[in-house]
Amino acid sequence: MKPASGLIALLLALAPSKLLASPLLDDALLLVRDNCPGYRGKAELVQIEQAAPLWEAKLRAGYALAATSDEAEGFNAGLVFSLPLDQTQRRRAQAQAREAAALAAEACRQAFLADLALLRQAALQLPELAQTLALKRDRALYQEDQIEQGLVEQDRLWADIEARTQAEQASRRARRKLAVDVELIARKHGGDEWKPLQALLVALTK
Q1: How far apart are CA 135 and CA 110, in angstroms?
Q2: Using CA of residue 165, residue 166, residue 171, residue 173, what is the dihedral sign?
């Protein structure tokens, strides 16, 4: 099997420029990223790290039996602010979480594009098979017409009928295999949203 980078290069070569700039591809990549298990866990960690406060405040209350330099006699209350001492460590942890999420998202993107390249390669074979089938059908029809006019023997028709049948079967197999592969890849990368991704892949492989 070709490495992912080679497959992505193949996608770039096979896909028209309008496909690579298509909102359909952008939607597919976003859906893939959001449903990638490796990315989701790390994205949640980023949210946790960012949501944690960089400082905290505590309400302090008490009762002093006698006045001191810090408190008056009787009931005392106050708001105490504190800043964690490990601010640098916290920022480092946040940066590491963001980097891990970005790397996971890129890995999901690369894997999906590699599979999309294979689908595109298979889809590009369909017009060629359809053209071959059309030629075989035309050839068989021509031979039938020649036989009706008594210009050739009927035995010559069988080879053309067999070639037409084989071309029909090859075209059906290729279309069926592409449909199956599209669903498999949609399920692989789409998670619970594989159906919308399947629809996008169908559009991207036309």
Answers
A1: 39
A2: positive
pLDDT tens sequence across 88-124: 777 777 777 788 888 888 899 999 999 999 999 999 8
Query: Given the structure tokens 């592969």, which residue do they identify?
Result: 181
H/E segment holding residue 194: helix 194-204
DSSP 90-123: HHHHHHHHHHHHHHHHHHHHHHHHHHHHHHHHHH
Alpha carbon separation from 171 to 81, 103, 125, 142 (Å, rounded) = 73, 40, 9, 21
Using the structure block, give the residue that is written with the tokens 């295999």: 177
In terms of Cα–Cα distance, which of 53, 1, 11 is closest to 205?
11
Structure tokens at 105: 């998202």
The single residue listed with the structure tokens 């892949």 is 201
Q: Which residue has the tokens 């963001």?
A: 98
Name the strand (E) or helix (H) holding 172: helix 155-190
Tokens found for residue 80: 């105490």
Strands 56-64 and 74-82, how do they pair?
A: antiparallel
Do the beta carbons of residue 55 and residue 82 sit within 8 Å?
A: yes
The structure tokens listed for 69 are 């330099």
- Candidate from 61-70, 91-100, 161-170, 190-199 with smallest mean pLDDT: 61-70
Please work out, in degrees rounded to the nearest 5, the angle formed at the alpha carbon of residue 198 by the alpha carbons of 193 and 204: 130
CB 124 within 8 A of CB 17: no
In this structure, which amino acid lies at residue 53? P
